[in-house]
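Researcher: I'd like a structural prediction for the single chain below. Treat it as a standalone chain; there are no partners to consider.
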Amino acid sequence: MEKQIYTAGKPLASAEKALIMIHGRGASARDILTLAPHLQVQEYALLAPQASGNTWYPQSFMAPTAQNEPWLTESLQHVQSSVDKAVAAGIKKENIYFLGFSQGACLTLEYITRNADKYGGAVAFTGGLIGDKIYNENYKGNFQGTPIYIGSSDPDFHVPVARVQESATILKSMGAEVTATIYPQMGHTITMEEINQANKLVFK
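Model: Treating it as a single chain, here is the predicted structure.
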């Protein structure tokens, strides 16, 4: 099946930076692209992969990984296709950025941690690494100082604070500059406070 990737922002051919934007469950590529005007990404090419059926995997991100297959593997490949598209256009890995919300934030963190490298940066609005537990053997590479911002709520119905903190610890151990901020009673949403943090720490 053809992997749909929506594009916006600067044309890939003339952009020096690319931002891969990953939507949440039940949302769409077009939805996540509406965040772009709030981010300091005017000079970036924007790539937003579209999940088939608007969901990246069927169960909770905390379910045993086998229950989310083969969808999880296919979704990770879809993110890889977006990266490949940017690289093919001549954009260096260190100028590729990632952003996701909720299920898209989990997929973002899972992808970059399985493929750690010096990227431009990553933003996870409410998310953590995927699985019923942390599978360290899946994670390899070194972030070489890549800035990563994670914002989440305490409590969050979908994403336990403990998983956010465990994820941040692993990212740090792999060489990322991680800022994980837990907001009391924020709810399952993206706030201006988080957007400001993302701009300050990642899209600077």
